[in-house]
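Chapter review. Work through the record for protein-serine/threonine phosphatase before attempting the end-of-chapter questions.
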Amino acid sequence: MASGGGRSHRQDFVSLAALISREMKNEKMEKPTVRYGQAAQSRKGEDYFMVRTDCQRIPGNPSSTFSVFGIFDGHNGNAAAIYTREHLLSHVLSAVPRGLGREEWLHALKRALVAGFVKTDKEFQNRGETSGTTATFVIVDAWTVTVASVGDSRCILDTQGGAISTLTVDHRLEENVEERERVTASGGEVGRLSMVGGPEVGPLRCWPGGLCLSRSIGDMDVGEFIVPVPYVKQVKLSKAGGRLIIASDGVWDALSSEVAAKSCRGLPAELAAREVVKEAIRTTGLRDDTTCIVVDIIPPKISEEPLPPKKQNIQNILRSLLFRKRSHDSANKLAKKLSAVGIVEELFEEGSAMLAERLGNDDSAVQTTSGLFTCAVCQVDLAPSEGISVHAGSIFSTSSKPWQGPFLCADCRNKKDAMEGKRPSGVQVA
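Structure tokens for protein-serine/threonine phosphatase:
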């Protein structure tokens, strides 16, 4: 690996004043308003969520504010869900190069999300705990929504025109044929639970371990062919805005995407989240932890309309539910006016589990100010002789060059090989 000169590297940095000026020109002060609500009913105590509405791409610049929402559905304990909630965001943001404008930042997110998920999994497994978690992680920056997910929690988009889009892919072995093939090709076994001498029962699971999911964070006792590499989808909403419903499988095992969306139309986000959880429990009972976040992305003109008085007691909440039809009718009238422009533009979609594909190619290695290179996953500094190309030995791209970045440290390269079935998992559980 050859190191680059210092002068060309310094050209990548832009002054803070220039960045702020560029941001102000690009934003045109037409950002939507983001409102959210959250509700949950606990049965096992393994669902966790996060809400951050004060993140800034450029520290100190309010026009660069973005929001982050996440749901983490743990299994075999809650440790992985808690750890992911506390560390995933910082790991993702640390993988985004500094000095980027908004469009470049949004483009860089798709790779940073992969690096952040893998780093979170790697760090948690090093703790020696055996729990695991799904992760559905949503970034809302103005009209652009970026979703990264592993597992079977789901995020859907309900546009003002009434169209419903799913922004995640369920990584359940029962339904996902491609994931079953990947797991078996990487060294796992897929089958149903079988008692000695008895019939096979229940959903398809991965063995060892018996996990029903093909992707998660944690689960060190299952095998590293259960990968933390997320499915990522990025879309741009029209100026009509839209509603996101992010929920754990306690909701989706009970309700279809269409039923969940329709059950809460016409309600503000806070009441909408409660209604989705209530409808799920009404349908199947409280069989699992059931968590929902509703996020409304509201056009400026609509958000400027006066809000109804804040509900102060249960009587007012009941009144709002009784008069839901009136609110629903108003929402339908608004939807008809906006449906002509309620088009969602897909900017990016990728679900491959292979790091060589997801981290892409670098024409030149990423260098730090110290003159060292960095690992694309864990962001540790590497001397020019230490890094291993993510493409070294790759069979997935004939155009890849083993000396071409991005680069991995030896530890992350070992993890990559384990996830692809090129060596046994390095983590052993007594």
